[in-house]
Every structure is written in structure tokens, then in C-alpha cells.
């Protein structure tokens, strides 16, 4: 069983976190630090992978110190990460050859259009479950090969390594060049059936297989930690949204959750069956525990939710801290007739429209910054409503309860708006950071710290729930206005 704790490294879009959990799944210690968002050109979003690695080491050391623990006290360590963000680094020096290209980045729009031109956006969906979009990793890797000096030559020599952020961290921690099925399923390069890199996709994308990591399960020992985690087994990796699904205990088909962070991501477990989407959702791997069969999921990805609050804070100066948005939005009873659609990098699910750009519509002289703040919260809830509707159309099942997690669930007004817009209850768990919890659970399973999934399911506890207070007629009228606002964003580029 090992030590008394399991650690999770949660490397997100805006920050890196380390959390320690005990056998009951309770938080023992936590440390977190942000990293820079780099925007060299409009539509480009980058991170410094070396800064991220330094921050991860720092938060691990801080969390251990706060718990009064050492690496020897860790039974296992799990990694969860922002998905689709890619790093390319030199096998010998260990240094990235360029900044990491973030999942929000749209520089690959021309390549995606070229790949879609003759066969459509769903050209590869039957193989990998994904539409062709700038969101995913494969086109970003192709861009690095084509645009970064010496990259293709280094790949030909076998000196270039590719990976999503989980791969980058695990390589630095253990020396192993690996990823898990959930992260690999977000690349546009993996077959959902074989759970391996697909030769047709690699050929069409122009990606050399030798630069890619080995694909393993989400819960197994990848290697032994070095440095700040010396001797600790690194035993799990999950993309952040799949980790949240795991942390919410959604282990049966039909169970799902929505994580509210930089974006919002709704996943529903579909069991061992791959369910194709006809309504703008993604078919993805939910998780794979050791040698057990993979569990699949349907996902709806919304690009901008918490990032919209950050934009109001940093670009427009509406608030000085993101936590102030709730009080500002609560100072008015409604949105004053305005709607804010945050299509900053196009629209993700269920629209998949890279040509869309953000719009603030319905303005009159009556509208104040408080109304716009409320419209920003409503934008998150309406985008989730669109995904829920698509999920129901694909699955044939109406949502009856939404499990919500992530940083934005601390905003009680947003949670009430969400339940009103959905017309179903919304519940928040006691451990809202279920992304970290899911990575810890998967790592603990791999080493026997927890015996089985049912033990993990039994540890789930509700913190608070919200019930709808909006009439069905008012809900539909407001939804119609939202859809009209979305239509105004299309065909902009």
C-alpha cells in the first residue's frame, strides 16, 4: 500500500497545482502557482514548457512541506493536465525547441481547412472520434515540423520528442516517454479501436511515429520519480476532463459531469461502447485502468468560460479579482437585455465554427458593467445548455442531474443560473477540484492504495445543490435570444 498519501500533479491552462490526499480522499495539502500566457500574434496562445516544469517542481515541494511529508510518504503520484497542448523537445538536451502550443491556439486553421477541403470536417471521425479542428494536437505538431527551424531534420535523426503536457512532465520526472489513452485520444492521431497511433492518420498529418510517446493505460506504474519526487511511483495520467470524470465517480454508463474552469467540459460515460456523435460532440476515451478494457465517453467542449471572467478582469478592468464577478453580477436582477458570446477563438461544441468571433449584442444606454458581468456568467451557462441539448440528442436520454466541479463552481450565482437554464438540479461535491482527485484515485488504484472503483464511488460526497427557479417559458425565451446572439458571431473571419 505504501505511504499514507497519494499526490496529484494538476498542470492546467493557467496554473500548476499539487494536492495530497489521504485514504478517505480528503485533501491533506495543496500548493498552486500560475504561469504566463504568451500571445505572440492574434489567435496564438503559447506556454513556456520550462516555466511549467519549474513551477511543477515548486508546487510539489511546497505541498509536501505543508503536509510535513517527504516523497517516501507517497504511495503513488498521478498526473493530470491541460489536454491538446503540445511540446517538442530535444531528446539529448531536454530543452523544448519552441514554446508549447496551447489547445486554444488557432494558428493551424489553414492546415485544418486544407485537410478538410475535399472530405469535410469529419474526415477522420470514424477512426479517432474527432472532427478536424485547430483544438487538437496533431495539426499543432505538424506546424512545429513545418515552421520551426531544424525540427523536421531533428525528427528524422530521432532527436526530437513530441508530447502533450503529461508526457513532458512524466519524461522529466522519470525519463519515460509515455502518454495515456485519454491524452492520446485528443491528438487526432490515435485509433479509438486499437488504442494505438494510426498509420493513416500519421501519414495524412505528416507526423513521424518515432517522435511520439508510447500509449499506456491511465492507471499503471510508468516509472519511479526523480528529484523532488525521488523514489515515488508515477502511476497515473489522465487528461484533465477525464480525470474529473474519474474523480466524480462516474464509473457507470450514463453518469457524467461538467467541469468549469478556463473552459467548460461536459463528459458522459458510455461504457465500453464508442458512441458516434451526430450533434457536434466528441467521442473520446474516458479512462483505462490497467489491463481492463477502455471506457469511452461523449464530450462537449466549450472553449471560453472562466477565461471570459479573466478577460473582463485583465482586458477591461471590470473587477480586480475574478472572485468579485459574483457580487458585481448579483447587483442587478438580469442582463439588461445584453448577451455576450465569447467566441474569442471560434466556437467549440456543438458548433465547431473557427470563423466565429466574440460579440456583445443587445446594448442599450440602460446597460451597465454589472449587466455585462451577469451576461458573462450567463454565457457560461448557455454554452453548457447547448452541449446538454446535443448530448441528449446523441444519447436519446434527457439529463436529470448535473454534477459540477472546477473553480467556477465556487460562484453560487453561476450555479443558480446554470440550474435555471437547464431546468434540472445541479450538485457540487465536497472536493470541487475533482481533476486532481481523479488523478490521485487512478494512481492509488495502480499500487493498491485503494482496492477498486466501488471504494472510490463510496467516497463521493455532495457539498451543495441548486434547484431551478425559472419558468419554462422564460427559459425558452431567453434561450432563443442567446441563439440569436450566437448567430451574430458566425462568418466573421
Global Rg: 21 Å
Mean pLDDT score, rounded? 93
In DSSP terms (H or I, runs of 4 or more residues), the helix count works out at: 16
Side-by-side strand order of the widest sheet: 15-16-14-13-19-20-21
Assess the beta-strand content as a share of residues: 15-25%
Largest sheet: 7 strands, mixed
- Poorly predicted tracts of residues: none
Measured between the Cα atoms of the first and last residue, the distance is: 55 Å
Strand element count: 21
Helix content: 25-40%
SS-derived structural category: alpha/beta
What is the 3D form?
globular
Word description of this protein:
With 493 residues, this protein is of the alpha/beta class. The chain has 16 helices and 21 strands. It has helices spanning 49-67, 109-116, 125-128, 137-147, 151-157, 165-174, 181-184, 199-205, 240-247, 306-314, 325-330, 369-395, 412-422, 434-447, 453-458, 472-489, and strands spanning 5-11, 15-21, 27-34, 46-47, 74-81, 86-90, 100-101, 160-164, 178-180, 214-216, 219-224, 233-239, 256-260, 264-271, 282-287, 295-302, 339-341, 359-361, 402-405, 426-429, 462-466. Strands 15-16-14-13-19-20-21 form a seven-stranded mixed sheet. Strands 3-2-1-5-12-11 form a six-stranded mixed sheet, sandwiched between helices. A hairpin with an 8-residue loop joins strand 11 (219-224) and strand 12. Helix 9 (240-247) crosses helix 14, helix 10 runs antiparallel to helix 12 and helix 12 packs across helix 13. The termini are far apart. The relative contact order is 0.13.
Amino acid at each position: 500500500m505504501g505511504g499514507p498519501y497519494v499526490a496529484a500533479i494538476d498542470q492546467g491552462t493557467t496554473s500548476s497545482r499539487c494536492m495530497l490526499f489521504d485514504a478517505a480522499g480528503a485533501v491533506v495539502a495543496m500548493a498552486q502557482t500560475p504561469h504566463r500566457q504568451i500571445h505572440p500574434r492574434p489567435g496564438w496562445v503559447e506556454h513556456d514548457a520550462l516555466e511549467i516544469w519549474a513551477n511543477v517542481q515548486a508546487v510539489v515541494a511546497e505541498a509536501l512541506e505543508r503536509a510535513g511529508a517527504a516523497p517516501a510518504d507517497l504511495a503513488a503520484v498521478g498526473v493530470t493536465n491541460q489536454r491538446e497542448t503540445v511540446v517538442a523537445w530535444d531528446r539529448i538536451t531536454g530543452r523544448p525547441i519552441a514554446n508549447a502550443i496551447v489547445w486554444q491556439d488557432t494558428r493551424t486553421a489553414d492546415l485544418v481547412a486544407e485537410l478538410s477541403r475535399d472530405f469535410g470536417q469529419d474526415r477522420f471521425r470514424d477512426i479517432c472520434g474527432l472532427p478536424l479542428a485547430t483544438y487538437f494536437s496533431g495539426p499543432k505538431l505538424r506546424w512545429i515540423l513545418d515552421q520551426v527551424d531544424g525540427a523536421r531534420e531533428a525528427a528524422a535523426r530521432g532527436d526530437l520528442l513530441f508530447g502533450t503536457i503529461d508526457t513532458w512532465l512524466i519524461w522529466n520526472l522519470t525519463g519515460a516517454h509515455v502518454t495515456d489513452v485519454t491524452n492520446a485520444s485528443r491528438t487526432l492521431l490515435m485509433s479509438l479501436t486499437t488504442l494505438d497511433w494510426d498509420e493513416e492518420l500519421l501519414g495524412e498529418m505528416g507526423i513521424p511515429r518515432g517522435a511520439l510517446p508510447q500509449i499506456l493505460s491511465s492507471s499503471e506504474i510508468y516509472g519511479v520519480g526523480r528529484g523532488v519526487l525521488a523514489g515515488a511511483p508515477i502511476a497515473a495520467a489522465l487528461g484533465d476532463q477525464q480525470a474529473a470524470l474519474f474523480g466524480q465517480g462516474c464509473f457507470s454508463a450514463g453518469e457524467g459531469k461538467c467541469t468549469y474552469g478556463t473552459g467548460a467540459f461536459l463528459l458522459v460515460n458510455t461504457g465500453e461502447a464508442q458512441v458516434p456523435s451526430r450533434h457536434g460532440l466528441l467521442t473520446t476515451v474516458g479512462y483505462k485502468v490497467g489491463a481492463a478494457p477502455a471506457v469511452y465517453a461523449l464530450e462537449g467542449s466549450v472553449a471560453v468560460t472562466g477565461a471570459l471572467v479573466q478577460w473582463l478582469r485583465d482586458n477591461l478592468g471590470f473587477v480586480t479579482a475574478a472572485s468579485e464577478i459574483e457580487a458585481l453580477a448579483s447587483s442587478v436582477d438580469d442582463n439588461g437585455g445584453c448577451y455576450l458570446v465569447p467566441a474569442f477563438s471560434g466556437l467549440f461544441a456543438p458548433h465547431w465554427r473557427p470563423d466565429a468571433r466574440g460579440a456583445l449584442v443587445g446594448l442599450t444606454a440602460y446597460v451597465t458593467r454589472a449587466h455585462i458581468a451577469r451576461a458573462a456568467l450567463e454565457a457560461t451557462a448557455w454554452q453548457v445548455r447547448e452541449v446538454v441539448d446535443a448530448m441528449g440528442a446523441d444519447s436519446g436520454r434527457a439529463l436529470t442531474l448535473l454534477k459540477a466541479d472546477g473553480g467556477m463552481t465556487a460562484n453560487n450565482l453561476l450555479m443558480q443560473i446554470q440550474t435555471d437554464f437547464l431546468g434540472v438540479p445541479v450538485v457540487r461535491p465536497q472536493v470541487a477540484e475533482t481533476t486532481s482527485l481523479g488523478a490521485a484515485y487512478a494512481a492509488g488504484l495502480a499500487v493498491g492504495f485503494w482496492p477498486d472503483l466501488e471504494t472510490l464511488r463510496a467516497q463521493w460526497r455532495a457539498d451543495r445543490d441548486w434547484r431551478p427557479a425559472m419558468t419554462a417559458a422564460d427559459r425558452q425565451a431567453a434561450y432563443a435570444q442567446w441563439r440569436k446572439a450566437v448567430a451574430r458571431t458566425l462568418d466573421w473571419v
